[in-house]
Amino acid sequence: MKRTITEAFKVVDNQCLIIDGYGYFLGKNSNRIVVKQNEKTVSQIPFDDINCIILSSRSAFLSTAFINEACRHGVGIVIWGNGSPNILVASSRLSAFVEAKRAQFDAYKNVKGLNLVKKVIASKIANQTALIRYYSKNTNKRAYFEKASRSLNLNVQNVKNIDGDNISAVRNSILMLEAISSKIYWKCFIELMHYDLNFSGRDTEGVDAVNAALSYGYAILYSLTWMAILNAGLEPFAGFLHTDRPGKPSLVFDLSEPFKQRLVDRPIMSLINNRQLIRSVGALLDTRSKKLISTKIMNELYKKENYCGRKLSLISIIQSNIYSTVSELKDTGQYNEYKFKW
Protein backbone atom coordinates (compact mmCIF):
# COMPACT_ATOMS: atom_id res chain seq x y z
CA MET A 1 0.00 0.00 0.00
CA LYS A 2 1.39 3.38 -1.00
CA ARG A 3 1.83 5.97 1.72
CA THR A 4 0.74 9.56 1.35
CA ILE A 5 3.47 12.13 0.72
CA THR A 6 3.21 13.41 4.31
CA GLU A 7 3.47 9.89 5.75
CA ALA A 8 6.38 8.92 3.53
CA PHE A 9 8.52 12.03 3.83
CA LYS A 10 9.19 15.11 5.90
CA VAL A 11 6.90 17.56 4.14
CA VAL A 12 4.52 20.30 5.25
CA ASP A 13 1.71 21.80 3.18
CA ASN A 14 2.99 19.84 0.17
CA GLN A 15 5.58 22.52 -0.64
CA CYS A 16 9.02 21.42 0.54
CA LEU A 17 10.10 17.78 0.41
CA ILE A 18 13.11 16.43 2.33
CA ILE A 19 14.39 12.99 1.35
CA ASP A 20 16.87 11.41 3.73
CA GLY A 21 17.70 7.73 3.56
CA TYR A 22 19.13 5.09 1.28
CA GLY A 23 18.02 3.52 -1.97
CA TYR A 24 15.82 6.35 -3.29
CA PHE A 25 15.10 6.96 -6.97
CA LEU A 26 13.22 10.00 -8.29
CA GLY A 27 11.63 9.78 -11.73
CA LYS A 28 8.55 11.13 -13.47
CA ASN A 29 5.30 9.83 -14.86
CA SER A 30 3.47 12.50 -16.84
CA ASN A 31 3.16 15.49 -14.45
CA ARG A 32 3.89 13.51 -11.31
CA ILE A 33 7.07 12.84 -9.33
CA VAL A 34 7.59 9.12 -8.85
CA VAL A 35 9.54 8.23 -5.70
CA LYS A 36 10.90 4.71 -5.37
CA GLN A 37 12.87 3.12 -2.57
CA ASN A 38 14.68 -0.13 -3.21
CA GLU A 39 12.88 -0.34 -6.58
CA LYS A 40 9.40 -0.12 -4.99
CA THR A 41 7.18 2.90 -5.65
CA VAL A 42 6.42 4.57 -2.33
CA SER A 43 4.70 7.75 -3.54
CA GLN A 44 3.60 9.74 -6.56
CA ILE A 45 3.33 13.52 -6.16
CA PRO A 46 2.13 16.17 -8.62
CA PHE A 47 4.95 18.55 -9.55
CA ASP A 48 2.56 21.45 -8.93
CA ASP A 49 2.31 20.47 -5.23
CA ILE A 50 6.05 20.96 -4.60
CA ASN A 51 8.35 23.96 -4.95
CA CYS A 52 11.54 22.63 -3.35
CA ILE A 53 13.14 19.21 -2.94
CA ILE A 54 16.03 18.74 -0.50
CA LEU A 55 18.10 15.59 -0.97
CA SER A 56 20.14 14.97 2.16
CA SER A 57 20.48 11.30 1.27
CA ARG A 58 23.90 9.90 0.41
CA SER A 59 22.31 7.38 -1.92
CA ALA A 60 19.67 8.83 -4.23
CA PHE A 61 19.32 8.68 -8.00
CA LEU A 62 17.51 11.13 -10.27
CA SER A 63 16.41 10.58 -13.86
CA THR A 64 17.15 13.30 -16.41
CA ALA A 65 13.43 13.32 -17.28
CA PHE A 66 12.64 14.11 -13.63
CA ILE A 67 15.22 16.92 -13.51
CA ASN A 68 13.92 18.50 -16.72
CA GLU A 69 10.31 18.34 -15.54
CA ALA A 70 11.21 19.77 -12.14
CA CYS A 71 12.93 22.74 -13.81
CA ARG A 72 9.96 23.23 -16.13
CA HIS A 73 7.67 23.47 -13.08
CA GLY A 74 10.04 25.76 -11.18
CA VAL A 75 10.87 23.11 -8.56
CA GLY A 76 14.35 23.65 -7.11
CA ILE A 77 16.44 20.60 -6.23
CA VAL A 78 19.02 21.08 -3.47
CA ILE A 79 21.58 18.29 -3.11
CA TRP A 80 23.63 18.08 0.07
CA GLY A 81 27.24 17.01 0.39
CA ASN A 82 28.95 16.43 3.74
CA GLY A 83 25.87 17.57 5.62
CA SER A 84 25.31 20.93 3.90
CA PRO A 85 23.92 22.25 0.59
CA ASN A 86 26.38 21.57 -2.20
CA ILE A 87 24.45 21.66 -5.50
CA LEU A 88 21.28 23.45 -6.55
CA VAL A 89 19.51 22.44 -9.74
CA ALA A 90 16.97 24.98 -10.97
CA SER A 91 15.55 26.46 -14.15
CA SER A 92 17.89 28.89 -15.93
CA ARG A 93 14.96 31.33 -15.93
CA LEU A 94 15.64 31.94 -12.23
CA SER A 95 19.07 33.33 -13.14
CA ALA A 96 17.82 35.81 -15.73
CA PHE A 97 17.70 38.88 -13.47
CA VAL A 98 20.70 40.77 -14.80
CA GLU A 99 19.78 44.08 -13.18
CA ALA A 100 19.70 42.58 -9.69
CA LYS A 101 23.07 40.91 -10.14
CA ARG A 102 24.69 44.09 -11.44
CA ALA A 103 23.42 45.99 -8.42
CA GLN A 104 24.75 43.23 -6.15
CA PHE A 105 28.23 43.33 -7.68
CA ASP A 106 28.36 47.13 -7.59
CA ALA A 107 27.25 47.21 -3.95
CA TYR A 108 30.25 45.17 -2.88
CA LYS A 109 32.49 48.09 -3.84
CA ASN A 110 30.48 50.86 -2.20
CA VAL A 111 28.55 51.77 0.93
CA LYS A 112 25.38 49.94 -0.16
CA GLY A 113 26.92 46.55 0.54
CA LEU A 114 28.23 47.76 3.90
CA ASN A 115 24.85 49.14 4.93
CA LEU A 116 23.16 45.86 4.01
CA VAL A 117 25.62 43.82 6.09
CA LYS A 118 25.16 46.14 9.08
CA LYS A 119 21.40 45.60 8.96
CA VAL A 120 21.73 41.83 8.54
CA ILE A 121 24.14 41.41 11.46
CA ALA A 122 22.23 43.84 13.67
CA SER A 123 19.12 41.70 13.04
CA LYS A 124 21.03 38.55 13.92
CA ILE A 125 22.27 39.94 17.24
CA ALA A 126 18.82 41.33 18.06
CA ASN A 127 17.35 37.86 17.47
CA GLN A 128 20.01 36.30 19.69
CA THR A 129 18.84 38.70 22.41
CA ALA A 130 15.19 37.79 21.74
CA LEU A 131 15.86 34.07 22.13
CA ILE A 132 17.70 34.60 25.42
CA ARG A 133 14.84 36.70 26.77
CA TYR A 134 12.24 34.21 25.52
CA TYR A 135 13.78 31.30 27.42
CA SER A 136 14.96 33.20 30.51
CA LYS A 137 11.54 34.60 31.49
CA ASN A 138 11.00 32.04 34.24
CA THR A 139 14.54 31.25 35.35
CA ASN A 140 16.22 32.07 38.66
CA LYS A 141 19.14 33.68 36.80
CA ARG A 142 17.27 36.66 35.39
CA ALA A 143 20.01 39.12 36.39
CA TYR A 144 22.64 37.09 34.52
CA PHE A 145 20.54 36.93 31.34
CA GLU A 146 19.52 40.58 31.55
CA LYS A 147 23.18 41.58 31.72
CA ALA A 148 23.91 39.43 28.67
CA SER A 149 20.95 40.95 26.83
CA ARG A 150 22.17 44.46 27.54
CA SER A 151 25.61 43.58 26.18
CA LEU A 152 24.05 42.19 23.01
CA ASN A 153 21.84 45.25 22.58
CA LEU A 154 24.93 47.43 22.90
CA ASN A 155 26.59 45.43 20.14
CA VAL A 156 23.56 45.97 17.91
CA GLN A 157 24.20 49.69 18.20
CA ASN A 158 27.95 49.22 17.78
CA VAL A 159 27.37 47.40 14.49
CA LYS A 160 25.02 50.11 13.26
CA ASN A 161 27.58 52.80 14.17
CA ILE A 162 30.41 51.29 12.11
CA ASP A 163 31.43 53.69 9.36
CA GLY A 164 33.37 53.01 6.16
CA ASP A 165 33.40 53.28 2.37
CA ASN A 166 32.66 49.62 1.68
CA ILE A 167 32.44 46.22 3.38
CA SER A 168 36.09 45.35 2.68
CA ALA A 169 37.27 48.35 4.70
CA VAL A 170 35.44 47.34 7.89
CA ARG A 171 34.78 43.59 7.55
CA ASN A 172 37.07 42.71 10.46
CA SER A 173 35.34 45.18 12.76
CA ILE A 174 31.94 43.66 12.02
CA LEU A 175 33.25 40.11 12.35
CA MET A 176 34.77 40.99 15.72
CA LEU A 177 31.46 42.32 17.07
CA GLU A 178 29.65 39.30 15.65
CA ALA A 179 32.14 36.95 17.35
CA ILE A 180 31.86 38.74 20.72
CA SER A 181 28.06 38.58 20.50
CA SER A 182 28.10 34.90 19.56
CA LYS A 183 30.32 34.08 22.54
CA ILE A 184 27.81 35.75 24.89
CA TYR A 185 24.88 34.10 23.12
CA TRP A 186 26.20 30.54 23.22
CA LYS A 187 27.16 30.85 26.89
CA CYS A 188 23.54 31.81 27.60
CA PHE A 189 22.29 29.00 25.34
CA ILE A 190 24.21 26.48 27.47
CA GLU A 191 22.80 27.95 30.68
CA LEU A 192 19.26 27.74 29.30
CA MET A 193 19.55 24.06 28.40
CA HIS A 194 17.86 21.88 31.02
CA TYR A 195 20.15 18.94 30.36
CA ASP A 196 23.90 18.51 29.97
CA LEU A 197 24.65 17.15 26.51
CA ASN A 198 28.39 17.90 26.53
CA PHE A 199 27.80 21.06 24.53
CA SER A 200 30.43 23.72 25.19
CA GLY A 201 29.50 26.17 22.45
CA ARG A 202 28.97 26.38 18.71
CA ASP A 203 31.65 24.57 16.72
CA THR A 204 31.06 23.85 13.05
CA GLU A 205 33.29 20.79 13.38
CA GLY A 206 31.93 19.73 16.78
CA VAL A 207 30.98 16.06 17.15
CA ASP A 208 28.54 16.41 20.08
CA ALA A 209 24.80 15.92 19.48
CA VAL A 210 23.86 19.62 19.87
CA ASN A 211 26.41 20.84 17.32
CA ALA A 212 25.34 18.06 14.96
CA ALA A 213 21.70 19.14 15.39
CA LEU A 214 22.54 22.80 14.77
CA SER A 215 24.56 21.97 11.65
CA TYR A 216 21.71 19.84 10.30
CA GLY A 217 19.15 22.56 11.00
CA TYR A 218 21.29 25.28 9.45
CA ALA A 219 21.72 23.15 6.33
CA ILE A 220 17.93 23.08 5.91
CA LEU A 221 17.84 26.87 6.34
CA TYR A 222 20.68 27.33 3.83
CA SER A 223 18.80 25.22 1.28
CA LEU A 224 15.67 27.35 1.62
CA THR A 225 17.63 30.61 1.54
CA TRP A 226 19.49 29.49 -1.58
CA MET A 227 16.18 28.93 -3.39
CA ALA A 228 14.87 32.31 -2.19
CA ILE A 229 18.02 34.05 -3.45
CA LEU A 230 17.62 32.49 -6.90
CA ASN A 231 13.95 33.49 -6.96
CA ALA A 232 15.01 37.10 -6.26
CA GLY A 233 17.61 37.06 -9.04
CA LEU A 234 20.74 37.42 -6.90
CA GLU A 235 24.04 35.55 -7.24
CA PRO A 236 24.32 33.08 -4.31
CA PHE A 237 28.12 32.79 -4.60
CA ALA A 238 28.83 36.52 -4.29
CA GLY A 239 28.51 37.44 -0.63
CA PHE A 240 29.39 40.54 1.35
CA LEU A 241 30.44 39.52 4.87
CA HIS A 242 31.36 35.91 4.07
CA THR A 243 34.26 36.04 1.64
CA ASP A 244 34.17 34.38 -1.77
CA ARG A 245 35.62 30.93 -2.20
CA PRO A 246 35.07 28.42 -5.03
CA GLY A 247 31.97 26.36 -4.32
CA LYS A 248 30.96 28.44 -1.28
CA PRO A 249 27.49 30.08 -1.53
CA SER A 250 28.62 33.04 0.58
CA LEU A 251 25.51 35.19 0.02
CA VAL A 252 23.40 32.27 1.30
CA PHE A 253 25.41 32.31 4.53
CA ASP A 254 25.09 36.11 4.79
CA LEU A 255 21.32 36.31 4.37
CA SER A 256 20.57 33.25 6.52
CA GLU A 257 22.04 34.83 9.66
CA PRO A 258 18.91 36.62 11.00
CA PHE A 259 16.80 33.44 10.73
CA LYS A 260 19.04 30.96 12.54
CA GLN A 261 17.82 31.82 16.02
CA ARG A 262 14.10 31.56 15.23
CA LEU A 263 14.06 28.70 12.76
CA VAL A 264 16.83 26.45 14.12
CA ASP A 265 18.18 27.41 17.57
CA ARG A 266 14.76 27.87 19.18
CA PRO A 267 13.27 24.55 17.95
CA ILE A 268 16.41 22.65 18.98
CA MET A 269 16.33 24.27 22.44
CA SER A 270 12.68 23.26 22.68
CA LEU A 271 13.45 19.65 21.75
CA ILE A 272 16.26 19.47 24.32
CA ASN A 273 14.27 21.02 27.16
CA ASN A 274 11.26 18.81 26.43
CA ARG A 275 13.39 15.67 26.74
CA GLN A 276 13.28 14.85 23.04
CA LEU A 277 16.61 13.08 22.91
CA ILE A 278 19.00 14.01 20.12
CA ARG A 279 21.67 11.44 19.37
CA SER A 280 24.65 11.50 17.05
CA VAL A 281 27.30 9.09 15.88
CA GLY A 282 30.36 11.28 15.64
CA ALA A 283 29.29 14.47 13.84
CA LEU A 284 26.26 12.79 12.21
CA LEU A 285 22.78 12.58 13.69
CA ASP A 286 21.01 9.25 13.79
CA THR A 287 17.95 8.78 11.57
CA ARG A 288 15.43 9.37 14.37
CA SER A 289 17.07 12.65 15.38
CA LYS A 290 17.15 13.90 11.78
CA LYS A 291 13.44 13.20 11.42
CA LEU A 292 12.70 14.86 14.76
CA ILE A 293 14.61 18.05 13.89
CA SER A 294 13.50 18.37 10.26
CA THR A 295 9.84 17.84 11.21
CA LYS A 296 10.11 20.47 13.96
CA ILE A 297 11.76 22.99 11.63
CA MET A 298 9.34 22.36 8.77
CA ASN A 299 6.40 22.89 11.13
CA GLU A 300 7.89 26.22 12.22
CA LEU A 301 8.23 27.35 8.60
CA TYR A 302 4.50 27.61 8.13
CA LYS A 303 3.65 29.39 11.37
CA LYS A 304 2.55 32.95 10.72
CA GLU A 305 4.14 36.06 12.20
CA ASN A 306 3.84 39.80 11.71
CA TYR A 307 6.34 41.13 9.21
CA CYS A 308 6.19 44.56 7.61
CA GLY A 309 2.55 45.00 8.59
CA ARG A 310 1.42 41.63 7.22
CA LYS A 311 0.78 38.20 8.72
CA LEU A 312 3.08 35.84 6.84
CA SER A 313 4.43 32.32 7.24
CA LEU A 314 8.11 32.17 8.12
CA ILE A 315 9.00 30.68 4.75
CA SER A 316 7.24 33.64 3.07
CA ILE A 317 9.09 36.04 5.37
CA ILE A 318 12.42 34.57 4.26
CA GLN A 319 11.51 35.16 0.61
CA SER A 320 10.12 38.64 1.30
CA ASN A 321 13.24 39.54 3.28
CA ILE A 322 15.45 38.59 0.33
CA TYR A 323 13.26 40.49 -2.13
CA SER A 324 13.81 43.51 0.13
CA THR A 325 17.56 42.88 -0.16
CA VAL A 326 17.25 43.42 -3.91
CA SER A 327 15.30 46.64 -3.32
CA GLU A 328 18.05 47.90 -0.99
CA LEU A 329 20.80 47.09 -3.47
CA LYS A 330 18.93 48.68 -6.40
CA ASP A 331 17.91 51.77 -4.40
CA THR A 332 14.23 51.07 -5.03
CA GLY A 333 13.36 50.35 -1.39
CA GLN A 334 14.80 49.30 1.96
CA TYR A 335 15.98 46.05 3.48
CA ASN A 336 13.27 44.95 5.91
CA GLU A 337 14.96 43.52 8.99
CA TYR A 338 13.49 40.35 10.47
CA LYS A 339 13.17 40.39 14.26
CA PHE A 340 11.13 37.76 16.02
CA LYS A 341 9.05 38.64 19.06
CA TRP A 342 10.03 37.02 22.33
Q: Can you describe what's shown?
A:
The protein is an alpha/beta fold and 342 residues long. The chain has 2 domains: 5-95, Ribosomal Protein L15, Chain: K, domain 2, CATH 3.100.10.20; 98-330, CRISPR-associated endonuclease Cas1, C-terminal domain (Four Helix Bundle (Hemerythrin (Met), subunit A), Up-down Bundle), CATH 1.20.120.920. Helices cover 51% and strands 18% of the residues. The strands form 4 sheets. A 5-stranded mixed sheet has the order 1-2-6-8-9, with helices on both faces. A 4-stranded mixed sheet has the order 5-4-3-7. A hairpin with a 3-residue loop joins strand 1 (10-12) and strand 2. Helix 7 packs across helix 8 (250-256). The chain is globular, with a radius of gyration of 20 Å. 39% of the residues are buried. Residues 1-8 and 10-14 have low confidence and may be disordered.
How does the major sheet shape up?
5 strands, mixed
The shape, in one word, is globular
Instruction: Please indicate the count of domains.
Output: 2
The named CATH superfamily of the largest domain: CRISPR-associated endonuclease Cas1, C-terminal domain
- CATH architecture field of the largest domain: Up-down Bundle
- What does the radius of gyration come to? 20 Å
| Strand line-up of the largest beta sheet | 1-2-6-8-9
CATH class wording of the largest domain: Mainly Alpha
**Number of helices, counting only DSSP H or I runs of 4 residues or more:** 11
CATH fold description of the largest domain: Four Helix Bundle (Hemerythrin (Met), subunit A)
Helicity level:
40-55%
Our estimate of the beta-strand percent is 15-25%
Classify the secondary structure makeup into a structural class: alpha/beta
- The helix/strand series, from N terminus to C terminus, equals HEEEEEEEHEEHHHHHHHEEHEEH
End-to-end distance = 44 Å
The low-confidence runs, each spanning 5 or more residues with pLDDT under 50, are: 1-8, 10-14
